[in-house]
Please model this.
Amino acid sequence: MSEPLIRVRDVERTYALDGVTVPALRGVSFDIATGEYVAITGRSGCGKSTLLNVLGALDAPTGGRVEVAGTDLATLDERAATRFRLRSIGFVFQRFYLMPMLSALENVTLPMAEAGLGARARDARAAELLARVGLAGRERHRPAQLSGGEQQRVAIARALANGPRVVLADEPTGELDAHTGAEMIALFDTLHRDGVTLVVVTHDDALAAAARRRIVLRDGRVVSDGAGA
Model:
């Protein structure tokens, strides 16, 4: 069998608050293969977003080990972690985080510019990605000229800009109405069928049910890991 794309072993994450140690993750372990579509669910405060931040090298575990695409994240200093995120991880957030003064196309080109891709090549790829997420013809619109669903599509295109090994999404339907959320779920399903590895943190039952596998957390521990509902 091939090596897993993501390997998580006995991961702990604690925080010190007012002199008290608060555990967010308690001995979390699992593997994720290339091409999997995984939803991480559980009640608020169970450790979902902390786990996603650890997988994306935005936060470091207090204990245990995380490997993504063969890289032990504990070996990365701040500069190396930034490079790793730029080239290996695509992030989609609940609140889009688009640059308001830039067009959709320009927002999508930002990660490619940071990676050193030439202007002509990044403009061409950004246009291709916007078409892929259903925004052909909207390239020159700024975020304020786009609906919430369209802004999230731009954010997804941006996450795909550098051909990441995995896309991590934190509550990607959380700011959207039910109809627009359903459109996002359909788009994630298309990306999965195209071979994109997806890990989504969500409270949205419909999104969790669309994933092919669901990992459920409770009080910082994995309590269930199996096929999506």
Observations:
- The radius of gyration is 17 Å.
